[in-house]
Design a protein that fits this description.
mainly beta, 4-stranded antiparallel beta sheet
Length: 352
Amino acid sequence: MRLYCLLISLFSIYITSLVLALPTSQSSVQSLTPPYSLPLSVHLIHEFLPKTWVENIAVRQNGRLLVTILSTPDLYQVDPVNHSAPILIHTFPPALGLLGITEGALDHFYVVVGNFSVFTDVTTQGSFSLWEVDMTTFFPRLNTSATVTKVTDLPSALQLNGATTLPQHRSLILIADPIAGAVWRVNLTDSQVLKVIDNPLMKPSGTLPLGINGLKVWGQSLYFTNSNTGNFVRIPIDPSKGTATGEASIIATNGTGDDFQLDARGNAYIASDFVNELTFVDVKEKTETVLTGGANSTILPGPTACAFGRTRKDREKGGLYITTSGGFMEYQSGVFPRGGSVVRVDVGKGVY
């Protein structure tokens, strides 16, 4: 009987060791392939008034969305659950508009502010700055506002656009300069500004110079879009400094990528403003799939950026929130039948 009990005990220990050796939930997530049924459905969260270009998005820990407006210098909170009216968080006069937004410390967001006109395509070089929006003080029911402070001016920047935070050093913000074809780094601790990457694949081309646009860090690489060339590019970096450690390489050429979101495997969901598409790029296979929208489609008019939701329901469905301009051609024609919007596309459980 004792021998039997000993064998049972050893068997239990063996089984437990096998269970503990199984991949973690993060590894399990990375092994999944989303079961796409195309085109994916687009669910409207909120549409703003005509002549409202919704430029970028960040998701708060409570699931609310912060969206920047490029046609006016306004930052709004959008509630994707209750679908209540958007709340104006702050206006940044005398700037013309807001661009990239990224989260540093929890519920502390950093917004790119400057003078670029979506109506004339004119940039005022040297007008750009980075601001902190502390949402920990924002309680509408108590009538308390977000705390907004300027971090620093970036007078040497030609034009700023997308922004991202270094995951290993959350006091360092990287910002794309699409005219200079470079990346600036802002140290939130001492407000020091430094150009950390200047690469040929970031450079603009064409009559409307718009090179590097969106940028994100995953592992030891910086990924970015180039709106003029249509390239989606990866460059190895020092993840604690944001400086390049190797040569850049083109992963895909998806047309006219704006900003994007990376999933748990490092694959990209790219908002393509000029062609009204949401594109999935498998980074390992270097393949591209249009998930929804299209050049002749009105279902996704001018997608500009996207971000995964942070609630349990979002994770269960793979909720990807997308901002839109209302349609790039509206600003070229001067006719504005639609406003920019926030929509949701469910890309499948287990992608993040």
